[in-house]
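In response to a reviewer's request, we include the raw inputs and outputs for one of the modeled complexes. The two entities were modeled together in a single run.
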Amino acid sequence: MNSFFEFFSFADPNIRYVVLGSILLTASSAIVGSFTFLQKKALVGDAVAHAVLPGVCLSFILSGEKNPLILVVGAFVTGWLSLVLIDVIAARSKIKEDTAIGLVLSVFFGIGIFILTMIQKSGAASQTGLDQYLFGKAASLVGQDLVVFGIVATLLVLAVYFLFKEFTLIAFDKEFAISLGIPVRRVELVLTTLTVLAVVIGIQAVGVVLMAAMLITPAAAARFWTEKVITMTWLAAVFGAISGLTGAYISYVAPSMPTGPWIVVVVSTIAFFSFFMAPKKGIFYKMYHQSRIKANINDENILKALYHLGEEERNFYQQRSTEDILTKRSFERTPLFKGLRRLKRQGYLDEKDGLWTLSLEGKEKGQRVVKLHRLWELYLTEYLRIAPDHVHDDADTIEHILTPELEQRLEKLLDYPTVDPHESEIPYG
Amino acid sequence: MEALQIILAGSLVAITCGLLGCYLILRKMAMVGDAISHAVLPGIVIAFLISGSRDSVIMLLGAGLIGIFTTFLIEFFHKRGRLQTDASIGVTFTWLFAIGVILISAYAGKVDLDQDCVLYGEIAYVPIDLWITKSGTILGPRVLYIASGVLVIILVFIVLGYKELFLTTFDPAYAAAIGISTTLWHYLLMGAVSITTVASFESVGAILVVALLIAPPATAYLLTEDLKKMMILSTLLGVLISITGYYLAAAFDGPIAGGMATMAGVFFALAFVFTTTAPRLKRSIKTEKG
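The model returned the following structure tokens for the whole complex.
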């Protein structure tokens, strides 16, 4: 716990640098990744991430030292090359894009591992640290590295800031962007370059193997909370920053641990939380919402059945058993009883000795459903020329959905009809 | 003798991967294969922690389950959460792989696995790692037994399910019409991919196995469209990749798995150049003559 306070007081300037660096790297990757995500090119990001490894290793062999600037250049070259190759393979042969991505990704990575092992076995003294690019090491973000990576990260954020509108447009509506006179090819080229750069600098903290997650996961998580691209990008940056901070902390307390996996686990946890819990788009919210709708439909069907019974016997307020209801419409036992009890709670039904009676409100509600059903049947036969024996199922669905406004328009359109195609009376309240 | 054993092990792994890879690329599921090969890592580590060894049936079964779980998760987020497929794949496998790497780091002392093994396997140790029975008889390299065992399993799977796999790959609607469950065969195939990646893990590592799953079938696909010919070509390519990869590694003192992935890329490049430029050359020669 001591180290926790030591770390988060940020008293040590070294810690400050590492924290600042990691946050900058992960947040800027997440910002660029938002657009990679929106363009549905998440897996291309994965390929680039793996493909920078041979570049890093080759530039080390050529320069003989671990100069961050040269490594960035080398990584950039092979990262770009991988993208070009994917495009060429997919365009010039019958190989599909996903196969091309997997192929380029694994072969480039294989070559990278091959060269990396050669370097390690040759025993070059300064090679220590090169394999940090595999799984990341936030703690090594000091001095020259921090300056170079920091500058690139700032450039990324600035580029996104100035080209925000263009990026958003080409992600959602390329045709429209073209019609506005935006040089789409060039903007796409800039975006691709930014993606490669984001990967190149992100690997310092996360490593090549898991870098894809830094591009995809924060954006995917942010997408569940908002519909606005600007908010989504900000949220992705925050999620990225939180995970970067955790990575720096892990790197501080457990120096032997690679930081990449921890960063990824943190950001994935945020993502899973978002997938399930986010309002409106989250899986739990949707499940809850669906069950509410289902219950509502079930209840309206019960009221409708009771109304039909009342119509037949010309007495809406008579006590009826569940068996009576089941003669009108087949319900499963549990939903029926649950629905009846719910309707009683809401005041639509009264119960006495297991027998059920419609209340005034209940009769009105049942009547409205029946009315909508019959209005719709009439509409379908009159306006869409559908045979009267084919309209029931459709009306059975729509009766739960029609709003009072649509109800009014239907009435007007059909000129307040009195009977439906089956000669049943259309009840008005 | 050592070289032969390593090449043999490499070939067995490459053949198994190549056969399954044919179905993966034809079903446009190359990246799902990539995801599964990463995602089984935590399963391998956990099974290792529990059983204390790598060659247990439990591990293979566990891996099969994790692979199916991964596939399920990808589809769950896609269908229930409306997350686009590429992102769904990306989020799921990086998460599982990250957990695997953390487990390896955390139990570094207890598990005979390290990051190098994850990255490029330990195929060079095949001849040393012998299977010795309790009575002390030496039966030969352990990995060879596992790799051949899995190859046999996959062969049986492909032969017995040939019609089902073929139909669900090329004409899922027809397959469904004659009562073949596309979902079932989808998951069976994913289970098979998982078992194969786990069995190949020791030899070539979790990431380079993707090269063997995708590159040989993709190369074969450039040369033929007939599924059977494609599988035969993939098999031959698997052997070629293993031989050339071994000698490439020997020449430069690199990792053998890295050499195999590199050679897989080289063969693809050759086939690509051959199939895309040869027809054009022919055409230009014809026009010159005409």
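As requested, we also summarize the result in words. Chain B touches chain A through 58 residues (CB under 8 Å). DSSP finds twelve helices and two strands in chain B.
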